[in-house]
Amino acid sequence: MDSTMIIIGLAGVFAAAAPVIFAVMGETISERAGVINLSMNGTILLSAMGGFAVSVRTESLPLGFLAGMLIGAAVALIVAFSSITLKQSQVAVGFVLALVCRDLSYFLGNPFMGLAGPRLPAWSIAGLSEIPVIGTLFFRHDLMTYLSFVVIFLSWLWIFRTHPGLMLQGIGERPAAAFVRGANVNLMRYVYTVLGGAIIGLAGPTYSLSVKAGWKGTISGLDGIGWIALAITIFGGWNPLRAAFGAYLFALLQWLGLVLQPSLPNIPSQVLQVAPFPLMILTLLLVNIGDAEWVERTLASLPEPTRRFLARAFRAMRASPPAALGTPFETQ
Amino acid sequence: MKAMITKNSRWVNFGFQIAALLLALLFTTLILVAAGAPPLEAYKNIIIGSVGSFKKFSDVLVSWVPLLLVSAGLLVTFAAGLWNIGVEGQITLGAIGTTWALRELQDTSLPPSLIIFLAIIAGMAGGALWAMLAGALKTFGGVNEIFGGLGLNFVATALTIYLIFGPWKRPGVASMSGTVPFDAALHLSLIPGLRLSPWALVIAIVAIVFVFFLLQGTYFGLRLKAVGKNLRAAYLLGVPTWQYIMLSFLICGALAGVAGAMQVTAVYYRLIPAISSGYGYLGLMVAMLVNYQAIWAAPVALFFAALNIGSIQLPIVLKLDSSLSGVLQGMLVLFVLIVEGIRQRLSKRS
Amino acid sequence: MKVELRAIHKYFGNNHANNDITLTIPSGTIQGILGENGAGKSTLMKILSGFIHADAGEILLDDKPVTISSPADAIRHGIGMLHQDPLDFPSMSVLDNFMLGHPEGLFPNRSVVTREFKNLAQRLEFSIDPDSYVDSLTVGERQQLEILRLLWLGARVLILDEPTTGISASQKEKLFLTLINKLAVQGMTIIFVSHKLEDVEILSDSIAVFRQGKVVGEAKRPFNTDQLVEMMFGKNISPGPRQAMSQEKSVLCLDGVSIEDVRLRIQNVNLEIRAGEVIGLAGLEGSGQGAFLRACSGLMRPVAGHVKLDDRDLTGKSYHVFKRHGVEFLPAARLEEGLVPGLTLAEHFLLAEKQNGVFIDRERGRNLAEERIKSFNIKGRPVSPIESLSGGNQQRALLSLLRDPLSLVLIEHPTRGLDIESVIYIWGKLKERCKQGAAIVFISSDLEEILQYSDRVLVFFSGKLSQPLDASKTTVEQLGQLIGGKGWAS
User: Fold this and answer.
1) Do A107 and B342 touch (CB under 8 A)?
2) Which residues in chain B are contacts of C360 at CB distance < 8 A?
3) Which residue of A131, C284, C382, C433 could cross-link C346, Cys pair, CB 3.0 to 4.6 Å?
4) What CATH number matches the domain at A3-317, 3.90.70, 3.40.50, 1.10.3470, 2.60.120?
5) Which of these CATH numbers, 3.30.300.30, 3.40.50.720, 3.40.50.300, 3.90.1110.10, describes C237-326+404-490?
6) Contact at 8 Å (CB) between B208 and B68?
7) Which pLDDT band holds residue C463 (cuts at 50, 70, 90)?
8) Do A100 and B331 touch (CB under 8 A)?
9) Phi, psi (deg, nearest 5) at residue B143
């Protein structure tokens, strides 16, 4: 394999990862506000089908993507309403929606199976695409891949570099303190969950109108992507940049799996596909290990300076997830 | 309104449940209309496809078996306050355990019924161990069982595929249709002419009865419920909490493992990639729908199984996708949750 | 800014938390607010800082009536509150915490804000690194950060709620100097809420004492401590007749025990508790009694020393081991920690008793429940779900779950929120246990209860333990002083 093919392959990784990027960014935003949207797997399938169907019927690509966004936002709205206003478990509602939306996508998508639909055209950026290496890697993609780069940047910028973003961090971390500083916590949670859902809703059409064009129902290979995106979100530590890294890493591993397939005939590609999950479990382990009772007990029996040091180290590692994730917020 | 809700609670609650059912039906009907399909025809076909003939109904029972086993197991973990999303992987590991045992023992001189029995035990062990892994991650590592279970589900699937394409592959070309089918002697015997194994049915019914009595009638069940409702108080009252959590994972995993064993010995006779067939997630929905009360698990699971089998008609007769059953099932659970939330909100207004 | 409260009333259900509160605080002064837990101080401060709304009454700032609808609204009016546990964001940086919530436009200008932060910090002589993370700061430093933030937002009234709990002596000194020399002098009105007599006396220009929802008295410099204590705790009630203390065997022995909690450290406790005696733990909440009680039960492990039960060294063992040796712990939060909502009364008894066999004997459970219902006078039936019982009956139920026999009963707030009849009844039952040889250690914020029922009293203040006091020879005033932090040998 020569260097040109490697560069083209890597460029392909960026493009293939674009839908996952959308899903992960949307979920990160939603979880930063304190709401888990467990319906991702279903939302992606439903928005993929819906976007494709609308696109075929109206022969318009933009409308297809818009439909995907609206579907994602609608599902997220149900999650938000059930958990914020009705105070039901976010896990229960999200989980059920994951299954329902998946089945809905298969059922309603049936007539569209195998149809040919519009495809997102490639769009090399004039001038920039001529730069050796960088040009091929970043500037010879289609609109949605460019948009995925932009979404990463905007998410990072919003959360970490703006005042409203700072408040978003606050809401997820300690809603009571955010409330004291003037935030309408529950309204903000609605807004960010629905916004996150809309961004997740871009993932599906990016598959069905670009990366894996068409709608193939149960063999579309999209079932499971949502759960993988969830794992990457956690691995990403609720930080857009790190989450993007995780998404690209996953896509890279998939590509490597394909490339190395001939030399390792015994290991099927699916094995590499599960890589995000051990990573996610490892992340969660590291984050939570300081809290376990047996750890506290062992700490108590250690000599003073060691105990202080370790206790502080554990407290520092705990910092990652928004502390108020999943918990409802009520004022007096 | 509030007085009405709190005073005549039983009837009002029932009313809310009916409302949820009607809403689910309404929504599903709308979906059918949106898909351009005649709703009444669709429902008629589902009914015919599930209870229209004795043979069809026996197919429903075949599907009922794993679903009932899994739902029974999940009632135990839900009693302990756990979201055992990893149950899907526990079914898979049960199937893997069973397949392994059958492969090891199939060429020995042991009588076939003993081999099958040992294989089912191996399935139980497989499921139980996988569940305890999720439990250990939670108890000792603080990893929420939702994410731990989810991760382990995917690892289980990868493991299955690895085995099917690797050490256990068919001679010649490895195929997605699974491992080499087991000899007919190692199949769980079926009722002639049907696909149903009476043994499997008995095992499933025994399981739900066992779980019912475990939760309602034993001290273990009472303590488990205390753990699920108030961990701190249960500990102060003397319940060894983390041990009980691990035990509930063990029981659920064992039952899920039996479901996996049933899939191998009574349905597919081999290990296939999607051996768990979504029964884990479906079982979670059954448990949610019956509000974690064992007494309703059997009929609701039967209803869900009937929907699944009945909707197989839809592609054949009406050119619709059979996922409609999943839509109705999911909508039921969703509306029950929403209606419950509305009911709680209304009764809080003071 | 001058603050005036006129006829403020606030009800929580039947609890008249603030009863006709009228108070005037001139601009640039330090107003001390003294009172026990539950006296109504926090409620009033929550009203003033916009967390909750008064049911009646007026608030005037600089003689103009205002409505404060939310905490953000309060700061807009210039009222800033420093909470006992500062409401900050531990995982975020100091600078982010400082900036968060400032209404300033889309993009924060970090260099400008850093400069303003450093200037402000310098003016008050605080040294906090703006790039460090809040969870690495001490409580004192977090307070300083919050003061800086409130100042930056233009606060002209600063409410400090129990600020000296959990900070070091030097930080306290620094805080006081800041308040007096830097803030009050510049016209800032300061409201200092505390139960610590000495601190309030040092700082305040004027003190208002709260008790049971009312302002029972005001005082101006110079302050008379006895008078303040009397206003805080009420007149002395001579302790009732008590049984002679038994000189029996030792049940629990604490030998050089040190306990460490998130906020405080209790050092080197040596104590022997004898069979049949009652020990009352007095002190305001958060002074260490809770941690102490948990250490006696195995719920908390001491970082030094030995805990011996009947000559058996059980240091470091879990609560369940202590339980097996006859120790039981009853928490204060009945429904959150002691009982299981969703289970019936009978089921609680089934849980608590020793179980015979695998299957539940429901009849036995019902009989046991009926028996206990009668003997503890619980208003409920065996099949009543526990959450349907009233508070008093829940407490009776909690007590009735205690097994027989026991060597040591550890109770947090046995009669909190109960009517007088329940109090007497419950103590009757507890004293019966003492006759059978059980020792009782309890926490209470009711000084009269402490003196009435204890044989010996231990007072806690900021992690320090007093020597055991003979309850029959101690007055309410003496207790009050110790609780407020006065009269301790340094």
Assistant:
1) no
2) 217-219, 221-222
3) C382
4) 1.10.3470
5) 3.40.50.300
6) yes
7) confident
8) yes
9) -85, 120
What is the reported pLDDT for A297?
67
Please answer yes or no on whether C71 and A300 come within 8 Å at the CB atom: no
Q: What is the pLDDT of residue A105?
A: 94
DSSP secondary structure string, B154-209? Answer: HHHHHHHHHHHHTTTPPSSS--TT-SPPPPGGGSPP--TTSS--HHHHHHHHHHHH
Question: How many other C-beta atoms are found inside a 10 Å radius of the C-beta of residue B57?
Answer: 17
CA distances from C385 to A4, B125, B344, C394 (A): 73, 38, 18, 11
Fold of C3-233: Rossmann fold (3.40.50)
Q: Cβ separation of C350 and B240 shorter than 8 Å? A: no
What is the ipTM for the molecules in this complex? 0.88
Whether the CB of C16 is below 8 Å from some CB of chain A: the reply is no
Give strand ranges (E) for C71-130. 79-82
Q: Which residue of C has its CA nearest to B222?
A: C351
**A152 alpha-carbon distance from chain centroid:** 11
Residue with tokens 């008793």: C353
- How many residues are there in chain C? 490
Phi, psi of B63 (to 5 degrees): -75, -25
CA A167 to CA A165: how far, in whole Å? 5
Residue whose structure tokens are 């598959």 = A207
3-state DSSP assignment of residue B51: helix
Judge whether B119 and B101 are in contact, CB under 8 Å. yes
Q: Which pLDDT belongs to residue C240?
A: 47
With a CB cutoff of 8 Å and minimum separation 6, the contacts of C81 are A180, C45, C48, C49, C71, C74, C150, C158, C159, C161
- Residues from chain C contacting residue A329 (CB–CB below 8 Å): none
pLDDT band at C1 (very low <50, low <70, confident <90, very high): confident
Contact A100 B142 (CB under 8 A): no
Output the six-digit token pair for A174.
């300690």
Domain-wise residue ranges, chain C:
3-233, 237-326+404-490, 344-402
Cβ contact C210:C222 at 8 Å: no
8 Å CB contact of B238 and C342: no
SS3 content of chain B, % helix, strand, coil (to 5): 75, 0, 25
* pLDDT tens digits along A266-302: 666 666 667 777 777 877 787 766 666 667 667 666 7
At position C353, the amino acid (one-letter code) is E
Contact C359 B217 (CB under 8 A): yes
Closest by Cα among C306, C318, C309 to C258: C306
Residue C340 with chain B: CB contacts under 8 Å: 225-226, 229-230, 233-234, 237
Structural domain spans, chain A: 3-317
Determine phi and psi for B51, rounding to 5 degrees.
-120, 10
Integer Cα distance of B202 and B209 in angstroms: 11
B243–chain C Cβ distance below 8 A for any pair: no
Instruction: Supply C459's token pair.
Output: 């007072």
* Range name among A217-221, B318-322, B323-327 with the lowest pLDDT average: A217-221
Cβ atoms of B123 and B260 closer than 8 Å: yes
Quote the minimal CA–CA distance from B173 to chain A in Å.
12
**C93 DSSP assignment:** B
Q: Subunits touching A (CB < 8 Å, at least 3 pairs)?
A: B, C
pLDDT band for A332, please (50, 70, 90 cuts): very low
**Nearest Cα to B21, choosing from B347, B293, B328?**
B328
Strand, coil or helix: what is C273? strand
